[in-house]
Structure formats: structure tokens, C-alpha cells
User: Fold these one by one.
Assistant:
Number 1:
Amino acid sequence: MKNYVNWAILAPGIIANSMAQAMSGSVKNGNTKIRLYAVASRNLKRAEEFATKWGFEKSYGSYEELYNDSEVDAVYIANPHAFHFEAAMECLNHGKNVLCEKPAGCNMQQLETMIATAKEKNLFFMEAMWTAYNPCVNKICQWIANDKIGKIKHIQSFFCNRIPFDPKNRLWDPEQAGGALLDLGIYNIFYAMKVNSFSPIASRSSTVKIENSIDCWNSVNLTF
């Protein structure tokens, strides 16, 4: 039995560069459990350039080639989140473990299907929510659990960004599941959920949408 994982990256975009940099650095520092194996893009040249930059062994000009490569053990999915479900299901149905960028799905039905499929096939599936492993966040949760800073009464959290309107940008495109909630808002919700042991008993939300039905502002109230 091999003692390393053949990792592949699907969609070598901006966020995938950060992941590849971390993986490459880990390998250079002596981590023998990671093998930088393959990169898949809809554009072969882009995949080749990415693979050369970060030291991956193989380049594919289609996602299908990655799905069908039996040597791939785990796939980091980094395409726009409107396409996470399709990519994750293809990976799982081809026997690949999955680390999927946030949000893993665009709705609860997608997420439940992916989780059920992973369990059925005994595969690893996780959303790449980096704040889940942030040392500062975890230390705060530890302090709260140990009653070091007292009982939480209220959390107020804002995450805002000014992005010029561009209908071609994924953030403003309903076909790519654009909008504030799935891009930035989930960080606020995740943090509140994490420090309260993921146990909300009530929720209320409102949103402001522009003419193409993209949400540019959300307000969410969670009661625990």
C-alpha cells in the first residue's frame, strides 16, 4: 500500500494558486505524504503552465481526463461554485476523494447529495472552509468552551466589499451562482455557527437584490 496521496487540482484559477503554493511548500519542506500529481483545465496550455509553475507531474485539457485517471486519489475543486456540484459528483462517482472550495454546494439539496454519495462510496469529502482551521478562531472557540471569556450574549459580524458591477464577472452572474451570500456571507454564518456548536434554533434573513436577481446585500439573524 502506498503511503502518499496523489493530489489533483481541478480548475487552476486564482484561489488554486494559493492551494498549490501551500502544497508545493509542504512537499519542499519534506512532506512525503503529498504527491503533486495532476492539473486539469478546460484549456490545456493553462493546465501545463500551472503544472510547471508548481511542480505537478501531469496536465489535462479536460476535466474528464482527470475523472478517468485511476491514479488520482484526491481532487481539490476550485472552479466557480455554480459548478462545484457537477465536478464533485463526477469525482466521487469515479472514486476520488474531494476537497471542494467554499461553498461546496449552492443549496442544501446539492450538499446532502454529495455527502450521501461520499458516505455510500466510503470517500473523503470536505468543504475547503479555511476559517475552520484558523488557529485564532480555534483558540477563541477553546476559550469559549472552557468559559475563559464568559458566556456569549451576542455576535455582530459584517463582511463587506465594494465590487464594481460587471455582468461578466462571476460575482454578478446568476448563472454562476453569484451574489454576496455565497461569496462572502458564508464566512459570517460559519463563524457564528462554529462558536455556537452549529446549533441554531431559529433564523431570519432579508436581502437586497439588483435587477438581474443577484443579491448585493444580506442580513441574517441567527438565534442559538
Number 2:
Amino acid sequence: MELLYQIALTMIPGIGDVNARSLIKHCGSAEAVLREKYHRLLKIPGIGSVTAKSIVSHKVLNRAEEELLFLDKFKIQALMFTDPDYPQRLLNCNDSPIVLYFKGNGSLNRKRVLAIVGTRQVTEYGKEICRAMIQRLAEEDILVVSGLAHGVDTVAHRASADAGISTVGVLGHGLDHIYPSINRGLAERMILNGGVLTEFVSRTMPDRENFPRRNRIIAGMADATLVIESGVSGGSLITADIALSYNRDVLAVPGRVNDERSKGCNDLIKRNKAALTENADDLFYHLGWGEQSKSAKEIQPTLFRDLTEEELKLVHLLSQQGDLSIDQLESMSAFPLSHLATLLLGLEIEGVITKLPGNIYHRIGKG
């Protein structure tokens, strides 16, 4: 059972997500990795003697079997990175987890996904802005992602649940408990139309070092990250920086210049790292959502110039596969990245395709 071996692979110290993917790619499966010989593991790029020794001397299968029993007992879904229900946007991030654990009923691959993060010491101003934004988002087919922490996270999740918006909390611990415990009831509401998600196995405690790792999932599974109130340091700014590294949009709500809880947002805007966002209209404008994007998608390409064979290949890929990232198009088309970018720009100018947040390309007129 491949899932057993993928879970076991994540339990071996020192491997990490990037090496885990490389190992599976070279060996063919997680099971093959755990059965591979030491001298053959050393031939895999990035795998040194320490990691190879950890793999061949592992004693993690019993613990992985316990985890499978836990997942079955509590009806938790294990999503391997090859699973179609795995957050597909995360696949464009080279350090995404090879296994995620999800308890809930919502899709992790909604048409639009927005991460909302911010300070734990949220003010009434921050709460008001967050609730107003989410009220407008209820008009869209959207998933709101956050970290279920005190402050902005809690406000975003609760407002989403109240508005009937699907919302997912990404946790920095296992699914055998909820941290902070005061949000246990909120998590149960979220599971009805959304859920809770983690890369950590049961019995993993909410240790400090887990939360920066958690933040990359929040940033990676969203089209954009909205920061509502943040100091000059903290988890929300880490999430914003990760989102930028993934070439995702970052937006920030401005605040008073002398307010410590707005200095992080103001600095993001000042350094052109984030788009200034005062309300939902600004958010829709920056991301191309709402009526503007709907009307654009309804445009039917009619009198285009004759497309080249290479352009037609890209149009065919987008028509058959649906929306694709530039990395996926590069892989499927085998075009060099610089040449691919030129072709895509030409198709955009012609109105054949449109570029969505996160370097995702959409074939206009195909839904």
C-alpha cells in the first residue's frame, strides 16, 4: 500500500519534502525508496551518506501503520501529492508536502482561493475590515484559507463560516487535537463546509518551529495572500514573503502610521511587496475577480490572426487540460521557458488566453 510507505517516508528524520520528491521520482515509489540499497541511494542527487543511512536503517513502518488506523478511525483523508484532491496550486511549489491530512467536506481546489493572515492581537478596525471583505467574497465561488490562530485567522474563519463561504484552517500540529483549544467549536463548524488541513501526523504538538512550515502551505495553496494588520515581524509577514517567493499576489490593508499592528502592512505596501487594499473592490481589481473577470471570460475569440503551430499547441493544451501554470505548460509543451513566455504574451495580446493570479493561464471562452 503506497500510502503507508509515503507516510513512513515523511517520518524518517532529515529527508524533507524536496528530497522526498526526488527519491520517489528516482526510485518510482515511496515503497521502492524504503527498500532501496544504500549504495544506490548515494547515486541520487542531493542524497548524502547521512540521509541514505537513515533510510536503510528506518524503523517507521509500525508507526505509519498506527497512523493509518488513526486516519480510518477519525475519517481523516490522507492526500498524496499524486491525488487529484491534493491542492493543485501547491504542486507548483517545490517544497510542498508529499502527504497532507484533511478532515472536512470542502474542495481544496476551488476556482478561487484567498489566504487571509494577520496579527493575533487584532483590533476592532482589523475585525471590521476582515468581516466586510468576506461579506463581499460570499458572492464568489471561493475558498478562504488561514491558520486557525488567535486574532485575524479566527475572525476570517468565523466570518467565512457565518457567510457560508468554504474555509480551511491549516494547522501546525496533528489532527488529534485543535490548537488553540478555544477554536475547537469553530473547527467543527468549518468541517461542514471546508475543514482542517495539516502535514503533521497525529501526536505532533504545536511546537514553535512547526508554524513557519505551516505558513508555506497557506501561501502555496492560495492564488493570493491578504494581510490584515501585522507588526514589523511575525508569521503573517513570513507567509507574505513565502507567497512572493511562489510568485503569488500579496495584498495588504493599510493602517495608521503610528499603530504597531499596522506597521508590517504599511511596510509591505511601501516596499511594493503588496498591493494597497482598502476594501473588497480593491481586492477584486487587483486579482481580476468579480464582474470584471466574468465579462472577460465571456468574450469569445472570433477574428484572430492565424495562429502558429506552436501557439495552437498551447491553446490545445489549455482547452484539453484546463487552467495551467507556466511551469506545467513548460513541461507539457517542451518549449524553452523564454520562448514559452513570448508565445503566451502573444496569445494574451490576441485575447485568446488570459493570465490569472499565480502565473496560471486560462483559455478564454472555455469556461
Number 3:
Amino acid sequence: WRITYDSRSYFPDIDDPEGRLTFVQADFCDLESTSYAIKEICRNKIFDIVINNAGVLSPPRLRLTGNGFEYTFQVNFLSHLLASEIVIRNSDPALPLIAAATVSMVYIIGDKDLDIHLINSNYNSLRAYSNSKLYLALMCSWLPELYPEHDLKCFAFDPGIFSSEIYRMQHRWFSKLYRIASPFMKSPVRAADEYARVIESGRIINGAVYKSCKSVGVIPEINPEASRDFRNKCHDLIQPYL
């Protein structure tokens, strides 16, 4: 499950002359693998910032993970919830911790009823992707409520459309079109710089969705009872791996 890479030998293009970076492989399609990898890191590291950034565009057809969940639901959201909670539980409550989640502009069209039973029914790839990003945005308001004793700031960030390999599970024609359009998109470096500016601003609002360090997007308006019920159901799913 776990492979640790020395940055100088495995990633020669990364500017890390002193070899201070460590890479740990975790398979977000496997909750046990994710749990093992994050717990191993927590044994020797103290987190200041956690950025939940792994993600895929939903596959064209329904695909389940080994844990039996719709692929996007687990990779884009549930494994992030698991990883974040493991980090928080292994952190000193007195030390400040920032937890961020990368969302997308389509989070605003996610299903507001938050019915977990809809995950594997009536599959639609856009719906699955939008829902996963809405759940990530909501996670940023859940975590401070779940761990009030921690000095925790949690926010979501919408970087807009930028060049990446998020297309890798799509049809071949879509992948070709994406690669053609990629040079005209925002660069990953610019998106990361905007992300960093929010973190460095010192003005983080828990549960907010930022578009830049000066722009706060729409904060999802969800029925509080429905949100708590959905949160509890998701927490029950990851409980065996915490």
C-alpha cells in the first residue's frame, strides 16, 4: 500500500536540492490504503496545512471502487474526509491547522437533498462530479464543528479551469480535445499561487468557498438537519478506518 520516494531520484525536475520532500503513495480508491498511508505520515510528521486536492472527472459510465462506492464519491470526497480526520485526530489541538479542499464551480449545482442512497442510482457523470465537489465544500464547515477543541481553519477553494490531467478517465475524444485546449487554460502554477494567497491572507472563514484571496464564492445553503444527517452517514462509512 505504501511507497515512499526520495524526491531527488524519483522527481528530478523538482527543485529540492536538500531532499527535504517526501512522497507517499496512497490509493484513494481504497479506504484501507488511504488510512494506512496517512497514519504512517502522522507517526513522524506534524501538519500545518492539509490541501485536499486529489480528484478526477467522473467516468462516463458508473464505476465502483473496491469499497463499493461510486468512484467519484470516494476519490473526490470520502477519502479526503477520511484523510483530514486522521490528520486532525493526530494533531496537537493547541497548534493551528489549516485544512483546505479544492472544489469546482459546479459545486453550486450539486444535489442539495444530500441523499446518500442516490450515490449509485440514476448515474450521471456531471451530477456525480458536482455532488462530490459540493460534499467537499460542506466538509469544510463540518470539520470545525466536529473538532471544536482544535485550532482549525477550514475552507474550500475554486481555482476555476486550469490545465491538469483530470481528464484521464474520460473518452479518448474528450481527452484529445482537453489536451488541445490545455495550453489556453490557466496554468497549474497560477492556480497554486492563488491558493497560497488565500492561505497566507490570514482571513480564512470556516466553511467559505474562495475564488481568490479577495473573493468569496457562494457558501452552500443546505438545510442544517439534512447536512448533519448526511455528515453522520459519511462518518459512519469511514469510522472503521479512522
